[in-house]
């Protein structure tokens, strides 16, 4: 497209996929009208300059992540596409209701399996599924966190299927990441298209840090508590986010070298000496928190912190033990959890899932592996996954062998195309596949932030949206 010409969506092709902006007949969906007119009032060159300005702003702000698979680790900026994804107010209310329901059920599940284990005794979930999970932490048995809340911060991954229905792809309760990109993507939208944002009637997300801090402070029994964000360190892929959230909340960013257990409390080294820490927002996986309680080889944790936590002298968010709910085999049973604990049907369904640990499901997966997406139970970030229709016969054979050797460690799901959203390229608008991660805070009540991170597979034809696998992000506009 010549840079001096007005930008146009006229040549945009749906290519048979569900599109977030246009319906199957090419008509504009609700909420996108003013955005489309605004884009088409600008030249392709003007939009290209704004896109470049967004990339430079992200670099200047240090919005980066590390990719471990590339040698020693490569630091990159998070790619940002300037065309936002829009959700109507009515659809958001439906999603909000479903996310509140799911979060409540998952929290009740965590409290139950570490205490009375009624759901296991009633055989709603097979006991061996839980007890064989790598993330089921026996030291947490008998534990009840402050207020009975385990999952203070949740990121639930949603996708839209071919029929337009939103489905839950996976749950993230340990250390859900990406919220800093949600916040910074919105700041970029404000800079690039302030009038469009204002005229479209978009709900704000900027109060997230304040809401997060308020929720964390409520976990302490002391007034005016000291709150800290615990990071694995500067080489972690999400270190930018850890430092960003600490700065936004006005609290200390610490790693294991800054904290020590002393006289029955967790204390932080400061220029004034040791100071008691009341609440820790931990961005370290469960098993690395305390080498005395969990993984003895961990160099990232604080020896003795778990015992202090058990005695109620420090609060941890999220609570240790939440990782069992991130297990992709456990995910398959969340609809049963909702019915068991709440007596309700799920508002948002799961993607249909085959559990390779069950003989009948395993046989189907082995026979149809070229049609399915196969995932390891405890991997994330697009790793440990095979997309059957795009994989080679050699990869099919490899995953068949892995499933046979360790069936408990795998699930499989139908290959779902994922919906698409137009993305800006110099040649014009092209559709790319997206998913969606909204963020949920659980304090005195469950609050779903009216926005989230739309991750986009920027490689043409790709279904993998993870930033470590070539994906990027879009701002998500939730309308009033």
UniProtKB/TrEMBL annotation:
It comes from the Bacteria. Residues 84-457 form the Circularly permuted ATP-grasp type domain. InterPro entries: ATP-dep_Glu-Cys_Ligase-2, CP_ATPgrasp_2, UCP005522. SUPFAM superfamilies: Glutathione synthetase ATP-binding domain-like. It holds the Pfam family CP_ATPgrasp_2. PANTHER family: BLR5612 PROTEIN (PTHR34595), SLL1039 PROTEIN (PTHR34595:SF7). This is Circularly permuted type 2 ATP-grasp protein. It comes from Ravibacter arvi. The lineage of its organism: Bacteria, Pseudomonadati, Bacteroidota, Cytophagia, Cytophagales.
């Amino acid at each position: 497209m010549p840079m001096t010409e007005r930008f146009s969506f006229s040549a945009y092709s749906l290519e048979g996929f569900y599109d977030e902006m246009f319906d199957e007949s090419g008509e504009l969906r609700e909420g996108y009208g003013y955005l489309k007119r605004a884009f088409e009032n600008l030249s392709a060159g003007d939009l290209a300059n704004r896109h470049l300005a967004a990339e430079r702003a992200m670099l200047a702000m240090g919005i980066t992540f590390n990719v471990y698979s590339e040698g020693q680790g490569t630091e990159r900026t998070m790619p940002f596409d300037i065309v936002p994804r829009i959700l109507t107010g009515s659809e958001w209310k439906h999603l909000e209701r479903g996310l509140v329901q799911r979060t409540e059920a998952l929290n009740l599940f965590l409290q139950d399996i570490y205490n009375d284990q009624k759901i296991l005794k009633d055989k709603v979930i097979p006991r061996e599924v839980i007890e064989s999970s790598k993330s089921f932490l026996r030291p947490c048995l008998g534990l009840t966190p402050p207020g009975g809340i385990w999952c203070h911060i949740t990121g639930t991954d949603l996708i839209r299927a071919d029929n337009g229905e939103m489905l839950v792809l996976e749950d993230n309760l340990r250390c859900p990441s990406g919220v800093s990109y949600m916040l910074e993507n919105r700041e970029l939208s404000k800079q690039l298209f302030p009038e469009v944002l204002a005229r479209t009637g978009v709900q704000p997300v900027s109060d997230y840090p304040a809401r997060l801090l308020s929720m964390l402070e409520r976990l302490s029994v002391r007034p005016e508590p000291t709150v800290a964000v615990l990071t694995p360190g500067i080489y972690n892929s999400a270190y930018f986010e850890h430092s960003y959230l600490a700065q936004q909340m006005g609290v200390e960013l610490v790693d294991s070298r800054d904290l020590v257990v002393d006289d029955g409390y967790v204390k932080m080294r400061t220029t004034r000496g040791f100071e008691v820490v009341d609440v820790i927002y931990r961005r370290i996986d469960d098993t690395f928190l305390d080498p005395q309680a969990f993984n003895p080889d961990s160099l990232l944790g604080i020896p003795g912190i778990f015992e202090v936590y058990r005695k109620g002298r420090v609060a941890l968010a999220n609570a240790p033990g939440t990782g069992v709910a991130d297990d992709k085999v456990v995910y398959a049973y969340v609809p049963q959890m909702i019915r068991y604990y709440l007596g309700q049907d799920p508002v948002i369904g799961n993607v249909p899932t085959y559990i390779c640990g069950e003989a009948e499901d395993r046989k189907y997966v082995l026979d149809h592996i070229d049609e399915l997406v196969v995932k390891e139970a405890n991997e994330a970030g697009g790793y440990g996954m095979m997309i059957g229709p795009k994989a080679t016969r050699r990869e099919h054979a490899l995953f068949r062998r892995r499933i046979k050797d360790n069936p408990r460690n795998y699930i499989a799901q139908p290959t779902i195309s994922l919906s698409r959203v137009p993305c800006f390229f110099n040649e014009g608008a092209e559709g790319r596949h997206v998913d969606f991660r909204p963020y949920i805070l659980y304090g005195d009540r469950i609050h779903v932030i009216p926005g989230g991170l739309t991750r986009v597979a920027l490689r043409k034809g790709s279904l993998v949206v993870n930033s470590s696998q070539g994906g990027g992000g879009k701002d998500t506009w939730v309308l009033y």
